[in-house]
Amino acid sequence: MSIEELIFVACAALVTSIVGGVAGYGTGLLMPLVLVPLIGAQAVVPILGVSAIFNNLSRIAAFRKDIAWAHVWRITLIAMPFCYVGAAFYSELSGPGAAILIGSALILLVPARRLLKSFKQQLSQPAVYSAGALFGLVTGGVPGGGIILISLLMSLGVTGGATVATDAVISLMVGLVKIGTFQSYGQLPWSSWALAALIGVSGIPGAFVAKWISDRLSVKVHTGIMDGMVVVGGAVLIARGLKWI
Question: How far is CA 104 from the centre of its chain?
């Protein structure tokens, strides 16, 4: 990659980090649009898996007082083994049919969550564990699996900065499983580690900018932004599945 391309990637990482810090996710959906033309599709998932460690650590530092630990443990423990499966077979899991199905389901989750809230219904434990398993499977195999986790946390009543903070802790723990799996399968040469480090370090300031923005938003507005990003993310997945982008 040329110097100009590396600078472009670093700037894109900063912007997506700000988006991710406010909405709870974003890098996994937006960065592939930048990276695929430069390095090809095969290397994107492992590289973003490593760079996400930097992003999540910076979000934890910025939002550390808002972490909902009770949700961290039950989701993480169920997601980890499924993340291993997803990472081991990520090429099969990244097909267009899966992208369309997941994207459609995520878009439907927004009105479904609001409907549950209007009836004051809580997700059952089996539903939480099923969603956690799905998150682990998808995040191990395709970019953008964080949308599922954000949707799950919001459905559990986690709002505002707590959503971003809790998502970051869970994603960090599950991401270590993902990286270990890719490393064992030979998917992370030193050049991939170097590019991932560039993306991750470039995005660190974005977490603190996002924290500054989030502190100035009401919970209602912040939740609305997250809902909007879930819909956009779902639409991006559908578009990828249909090969529009």
Answer: 17
Mean pLDDT of 142-149: 73
Rounded to 5°, the CA angle 53-57-61 comes to 170
Could you identify the residue written with the tokens 């199905």?
101
Q: Which residue has the tokens 């995040």?
A: 139
pLDDT, tens digit (0-9, with 9 covering 90-100), for 15-25: 888 887 776 66
CA distance linking residue 29 with residue 43, whole number of Å: 15
Amino acid, res. 35 = L
What six digits make up the tokens of 99?
Answer: 């992208």
> What's this model's pTM, rounded to 2 decimal places?
0.73
The helix (H) or strand (E) run that includes residue 2 is none
Tell me, what amino acid is at 52?
A
Instruction: Reduce the secondary structure of the chain to three states and give it as a string.
Output: CCHHHHHHHHHHHHHHHHHHHHHCCCHHHHHHHHHHHHHCCCCHHHHHHHHHHHHHHHHHHHHHHHCCHHHHHHHHHHHHHHHHHHHHCHHHHCCHHHHHHHHHHHHHHHHHHHHHHHCCCCCCHHHHHHHHHHHHHHHHHCCCCHHHHHHHHHHCCCCCHHHHHHHHHHHHHHHHHHHHHHHHCCCCCHHHHHHHHHHHHHHHHHHHHHHHHHCCCCHHHHHHHHHHHHHHHHHHHHHHHCCCC
Q: What is d(CA 198, CA 181) in angstroms, rounded to the nearest whole number?
A: 21
